[in-house]
Amino acid sequence: MGNINISKKMKLFEYSGAWIVGNKETGVFAGVDTDTKIFIEKVMHGETIKTEEIEKNKEILQFLEEQELIKEDFIVEKIFLDTVYLHVTNDCPLHCIGCYSDDISRNCKINMSLEKICDIIKQLKKLEMKSLVISGGEPLLRKDIVEIVRFAKKEMEIPYVVILTSGVTLNEELSNELAEYLDEISISIDGFSKEVPTFLRDKGIFEKVEQAIIIAKNSNFKRIRVLPTIHKNNIDYIENYNQYAKEQGVGISYSLLTVPPNDVLKDWIPTKNQLKELAKKTTMLGEELQLGVGVDSASLEDYYVTVCEKCGIGEITVSIGTDGSVYPCHMTHLPELKIGNVYNEQLKDIVDRANKNYSKYNVDSNSTCVSCQHKYFCGGGCRARAYMFTKDLSGDDPYCPMFKEFFNSFSKAVTKRVK
């Protein structure tokens, strides 16, 4: 077979009595028996592989090839940029509690020009980014928003283009135009009925958002998703949100409120017991309750499990502010975490630098995570949350009890299967 070169993306580890081999970037993994594990180790160590061994292990070799974990040549491994948040405006008519882009002067700030936005998207295309999330503020307030999404999808052929919106400014004409180009429209929701219409948002918004969902459905978007933010005061209503999405005939993804524990916001942060109960609900409801599917890197891991050794902050995801500043993720728009500005240098140089600087934030370098059996599935949680609570990107994710509860159940299922 010649030399078998191993990608840096491969991870082989033991978990609850089973051996797991997976791709750290895509998250895809497979369970293998002890003999196969020994064979993979021989390949990883560069040992001579006999013909009969290759024949015996052709199934796992095929899997490793399909997942791009072995090739004849891995001279240069490209940067894997999965998701980029592009904030096209600061303007927003709402005043949501805990919003990371909320600023008393945001509606007075100058927004990026269409020309500059298109230049950024061109640069992202060269970096082979997979998903572009257009956000704000409220992106639908831009008069040229259709031109932006058209350029991204039609001219640059970005694989997946999403827009995050409150929906309150969506009308039929705009909806029909956006539906022609977007792969997904994600509409933030706060309440789930007229009786329970709001938690974090301005009063009187529920009816406007519900109307936006109806308009979007009539426009035949490829995918429509509603996005509730889960916090201390609505965490017990998960099933209600899920039922609301079913009734509307749309998808749903739950974002976990990620805010610093200051005097204003501390009463919105879920307790440890609430987080554990949420993990149990995730385990019990399975596919019926998709938590964290999609665009929000601060979301709760959903019911399917992937291999990872970090959340990907500054490596597989970056976020671009309206002034051109680049941050490691959309939850870290803080001056001290800025990693560059697209007005001063090329995105590739910024992303290259971020990849080098943020590669160290992994579970094997975290003093708490390093001894945890769940580390290569959990990935250490969210670095943004850790920073908000500890002012240290290497700190512990305060929502760790939730992830641990979830993966304890997953571990039991793996152990049962192995036996």
UniProtKB/TrEMBL annotation:
Domain of life: Bacteria
UniProt GO MF annotations: catalytic activity; iron-sulfur cluster binding; metal ion binding
Gene3D superfamilies: Aldolase class I
Keywords from the UniProt entry: Iron, Iron-sulfur, Metal-binding, S-adenosyl-L-methionine
Protein name (database record): Radical SAM core domain-containing protein
InterPro entries in alphabetical order: 4Fe4S-binding_SPASM_dom, Aldolase_TIM, Elp3/MiaA/NifB-like_rSAM, Radical_SAM_PqqE_MftC-like, rSAM, rSAM_sf
Domain Radical SAM core: 78-299
